[in-house]
Amino acid sequence: MVLLHGETVFPGTPAALLRGAEYFIYVYHARRSVVRDPGLSMARPNTHRPNGSPAINSSTGSASQYQTPRDLLTQAAKNVSSFHFKRALRLYKSALSQLDHLQPSEENRRLIIEALQSSAFLLLDEGKLKEAKENFQKAVQLSPDEGYEKYMYLAQISGGSEAVDLYRRGIEIIKRSLDASMNHQCHCEKMTDDVDSSTKNKLKRALSNAYCAISELYTTDLCDEPEAESSCREAVQKATEADESNPQAWFSAANMLTIKAQNDEARRALEKCFSLYWPQVEQVVSLLRSRENGNGDVAGHDEEVEELDLEEISGMPYEAHIQMVKMMIELDMFERAAEILEVMLEEDDEHAEVLYLLTVVGKKLWINSDPDHLRYYAEVTRELCANNGDVETVGEMEELLATLPQNDSGREGEGDGDPEISSSGEDEEEEEEEVMDTL
């Protein structure tokens, strides 16, 4: 499913809390996906408190009866930022309990909605879907016409036609927000150009991702519905129209086209998806490798880059890239698949599935031209799977290694297996037009 990059209605909602909930939703739907999960546009969560993070004084919870609801929400946000999620959940519940006994007011209504949504995110992180859904539904009852995010989360923990209806309700709010943003820009053209542009781009990405989610439902939960194909195609077209720069939209297009066996169009959609963010990946990898080689910072990079994060760059999580590679293998795009997989090892060099897929690709690309390259990945995969108790894959790697010629090169070390990254050089505008014609 998807995560939408819009601004939260309630600024007090901690970002760390949002990230944790979003990741849970991805994992939950990845398990139940029937065809292939077109991935999520979300930031990877950090749901564990790092060593050395300061703890919040435990007295905050016991003193809750002496604090206002706003104080409790502030303390809860601090606990979330310090990864004390259970304590934060208690504080949100205390705030809701107090608010239940106060006179109704607009301020109290907004505090209740904030507490409901924030606690729902924490409940998602704990796997308590029923309680989380109840809190989101209460928030919808209190504020049905503003804040699209709660509809998206409800859709993601629902399914079938119910989920589609929830996405569509959220989409209507996004569209109204976009219209309001455009009208505001007309009245305040110069002073708020930057702010309005940022808001509009976030809303466009949210709208595009919502349509991606609907398209996925019509390839999974609703795939047997009579209107599944036409509804999926319509959702994909609207996703690309809403935000042509969204990699997720073109990935969803490729997914649909692959299912329909429109392989040439699917390849072009994947190339379009790839082209939207891969040049930035190349830059980051080049910078990191330069530092590893002791060459210092690369000229032209003002931002400090500590590590490669495909999700941060593309808006699509690591797991979605695995699905992309599988699609590329199905479409005989082996060179591109190898390029992505070898860069994925820059982020996680002990990911068993990535290493295994490199042996699958390697049997197509390197078994004759560079058997040592294939041998390296087969040996690493065998060792890692042996440590994980995956006897079947170990046996498969043993069989593969037995077919390779004797290693005479003395090749050692992972560095020998690192690829040289190069740009695709495809004509992006032509590819986009060709794919759009098929949608």
TrEMBL record:
Compositional bias (Polar residues) spans? 48-67
Pfam families (alphabetical): TPR_8
Report each TPR repeat as a residue range.
Answer: 113-146
> What domain of life does the UniProt record list for this protein's source?
Eukaryota
Q: Which UniProt keyword terms apply here?
A: TPR repeat
Disordered as annotated region, ranges: 39-67, 403-439
PROSITE patterns found in the cross-reference section: TPR
According to the UniProt entry, which residue ranges have a biased composition of type Acidic residues? 415-439
Q: Which residue ranges run through the membrane?
A: none
Protein name per Swiss-Prot or TrEMBL: Uncharacterized protein
Q: Which organism is it from?
A: Echinococcus granulosus (Hydatid tapeworm)
**Taxonomic lineage from the root:** Eukaryota, Metazoa, Spiralia, Lophotrochozoa, Platyhelminthes
